[in-house]
């Protein structure tokens, strides 16, 4: 047991759960204690400044520099009193990660003295190097200027640096010198504003007191956890985020005993630790549990306004990785880190709420409210139907390409699940021009067990195979990848719904101008919308081959390749949609397309290089060494006159040779395909070559390597095996 794998195993098996000291206060006493929240602002700002800041947040208005100076002074005072030494504009560039540049809370005077300093100008704006972040051709590499700008709608927070001291993090947008968005937040804020205006205008037909609509989001985060030592013993996990090779263990998830099972002590300690820190940062994480696959878990928050929810999810992922290090663990956010078992998603629970406290996607028993609910429901369905390919593009990535359609992940076919009750209601609307939708149309299960209280059954079941499922008062978009920034999807979803609601208003206003009665006109429009989009509704098993065939008959797209899916972004109708909703101009959309293609190419390229290295320098070399041992054994048997006994060993020798030759041949072909792709200047064509001619070799090489894993002596195999990665906790 001298190789690195067994040393890592020894370390992993010796680890114990690290005790976590729980806060002595109640959750309500420390929740948000590390955020510059509304309560802190009210205490530290003058009434005038507090009023102007809160008004700006609610109305998307601007904050003048005088008020910014006062806010900056209050932030500095608050942050330094809690141990902060630096501040940073915390933003989300198109790398897919968060970014920060720390500056100290001091300056040097002309006579060489250090003074504390943090002005409104530093709060409002900073200048990172825009050419060093992905820009998709918007910037030349020699043109460096870019700007980050404070987003007051997302509270500033304190991040512990780990080695002493804290940093004040100021959520910010990131734009180029010429004004184009270089981040996720800027177009997201524009999409949310577009939906607010469109949805509020539609709400006015039903209730004049509704003056604002706020989209809400609760992103459930799935992830895997492995021991830190085992992680670093797998070069593919370190470099590519997923296991390139690995034979299926005898026991995977087939016993279905991990889901909601007892959480392992080390994992539980890690969860408790990051949950406490999350609460201090104002992140309302509520749920933790084992997921279906061994080694897989989930954390889920209470829903929040979309912009804040996405900031919190990005912050949560960063926090989880830092806390995991303290517990000698590694968090894997890759969509498919292990073959043959479930991958990880980020289930986006989305809805819309009004300033009057109404959930626009909650059914009601009152006729007027019921018609309003149907109006928003049908418009969402039509928006998804008309823009299904664009919604598919928003979840496209190299990682998600491995996951979609495999082991319980939603298929690449975009469909909508409403449940039998709502589907029947819409069918009645179409055929009879009447509908009955009851809020809380529930029945009680009669269990026949006196000690068990009656259990209430919802009016529709959930469908976990649906990419876009209605779950009672919200839609759950399950197809988003676990490593993704949900802003990509939320930009598209909120944008297409805003665009559709604008179309609905135009259609309704036209009918009203002709003297039609409002309620009858709304019903007629909804009937037409439903008739034209109901083909996207599907109630059955989205994992089945039958659904793939049925979807094709319905004319629904099944875009499996990420480069093909991403191409939808730059189709004329997509460019027009983003422009008329004011979310992005043509240049910004096209740059994102280029960035996502480049990101896809680089990810597949890294996987290819890791695969070639592991195959030749780890697997083949190990197999040949083992083959020499077997050859020596066979030779000794023959010399002893035991020719027959040597034959089975010779068969193994032949199989090793065959598989080694196949690996060598396929690896060389993969490298040549990569060289060919790299010589293509057109990004679109290069991405397609990586998706086909390079990636086509992956499964072939993996098959041969995984077969060798079953042959080579366990003592000699260099890579940590699945049974060890998934079950050593």
Topology:
Layout (H helix, E strand, L loop, with lengths): L3 H11 L12 H4 L7 H7 L2 H13 L5 H17 L2 E7 L12 E2 L1 E3 L5 E3 L3 H5 E2 L19 E5 L6 E4 L5 E11 L8 H19 L9 E15 H5 L2 H6 L24 H16 L4 E6 L5 E6 L2 E2 H21 L2 E4 L13 E9 L12 H20 L1 H6 L4 H6 L12 E2 L2 H13 L10 E3 L9 E3 L10 E3 L4 E3 L9 H27 L4 H16 L11 H10 L7 H5 L5 H9 L5 H54 L3 H36 L4 H12 L3 H14 L10 H6 L2
Parallel strand pairs: 1-8, 15-18
Antiparallel strand pairs: 1-2, 3-4, 5-6, 6-8, 7-8, 9-11, 9-12, 9-13, 9-14, 10-11, 14-19, 16-17, 18-19
Report a brief summary of the structure:
The chain is built from 25 helices and 19 strands. Helices cover 49% and strands 13% of the residues. The strands form four sheets. Strands 9, 10, 11, 12, 13, 14, 15, 18 and 19 form a nine-stranded mixed sheet that branches.
Structural summary, described in words:
The chain is an alpha+beta fold. About 50% of the residues lie in helices and about 15% in strands. It is built from 25 helices and 19 strands. The strands form four sheets. Strands 9, 10, 11, 12, 13, 14, 15, 18 and 19 form a nine-stranded mixed sheet that branches. A hairpin with a 4-residue loop joins strand 18 and strand 19. The protein is globular, with a radius of gyration of 28 Å. The two termini are about 20 Å apart. Residues about 440-450 have low confidence and may be disordered.
Euclidean distance between termini CA atoms: 20 Å
* Net shape: globular
Poorly predicted parts: 440-450
The chain-level mean pLDDT equals: 90
Quickly give the structural class.
Answer: alpha+beta
Radius of gyration: 28 Å
Largest sheet, in brief, is:
9 strands, mixed
**Beta-strand residue percentage:** 5-15%
Count of individual beta strands: 19
The DSSP helix count reads 25
Helix content: 40-55%
Organism: Spirosoma soli
Family: Belongs to the glutamine synthetase family.
InterPro entries: Gln-synt_C, Gln_synt_N, Gln_synth/guanido_kin_cat_dom, Gln_synth_cat_dom, Gln_synth_gly_rich_site, GS_Type-3, GSIII_N
Protein name: Glutamine synthetase III
